[in-house]
Structures are given as C-alpha cells and as structure tokens.
Amino acid sequence: DTKGWQSIENKVYKYSFKIPKDWLKKDNSTSEIMQFETSGETKAQLRIYNGDVAKTDIPGYSIESASTKKIDCTDAKVTYSTAKSANAGNEKKRLVTAQFYKTGKLYKVAFIYPTDQGASLASDYVEAINLVLKTIKFN
Predict the structure, then answer these.
(1) pTM of the prediction?
(2) Which side of the chain, N or C, has fewer Cβ within a 10 Å radius?
(3) Using CA atoms, how far apart are residues 128 and 9, in angstroms rounded to an integer?
(4) What are the DSSP E strand ranges found in the chain?
(5) Per-residue pLDDT of the chain (139 residues; tens, 9 = 90+)
C-alpha cells in the first residue's frame, strides 16, 4: 500500500513515482541522478539514474541473483547484490538494481540498504523497493 507516500516527478525524463513519506530527497539530486535517503539512524539510499548515466556501475558489489520484473509494462532486469567485502554470514549492505529501456532511453533504479539491522528491517526495505518499482509511470 502506498497511501500517504509522496509523489515525485522527473519533468526532464517525463516519469513519476512514489516513495515513502519519510524518505528525503538529497540536495545533490539532478534530473540525471535523483537521490533519496531514508530518515532515521539507519540509512538506506535510493538512486535513479536516467539516460547515459544509467550505464554507471556501482562499485563494490557482487551479483548474487537476477530476475525480471515489469516496470510500467516494460521488462526490467533486477539484480540482487552484496558488498564484495562482506564475509559469508556477515553481510552489511545489499544492492538491488532494476535496469530497463523506456522511450528509447536507459534507466536504472538502485537501492542500497543495510542488512545488519535484522531480518525484519531488511524485509521492510525489500518490500518498499518493490512498491517503488510498481509506482513508476511514464507520461
């Protein structure tokens, strides 16, 4: 349920999406890289890369698994990665990316969240990113 979430619009790339109301847009956001951070002590990051910058790799993570999801009726490759330096059973951060083409342009949604705060919080983050992906709509 996304009731009460804030609506965000990228007027340059002509799409919108919703994020939880307590997530904050970072000051260094641009239309090419929109950046958000969760509030509170434990920080998670959402970045949306648009156009050519969507080809940017996020260093320090190893892909664990991949799947395909629909984002606004378009197939997106979703990858789940962990920090390369994490030891088995001692993982500190996870990265979920969704990469897709829409309107002839490449887009990448990246979500980095801590996993050392317990399984319940990690599960909440996964649920939130899945809901964010479902709300992306192109004009």
Answers:
(1) 0.90
(2) N
(3) 18
(4) 6-10, 15-19, 23-25, 33-38, 45-50, 61-71, 74-83, 93-102, 105-114, 137-138
(5) 899 999 999 999 999 999 999 999 999 999 999 999 998 777 899 999 999 999 988 999 999 999 999 999 999 999 999 887 655 555 678 999 999 999 899 999 999 998 877 777 788 888 999 999 999 999 9
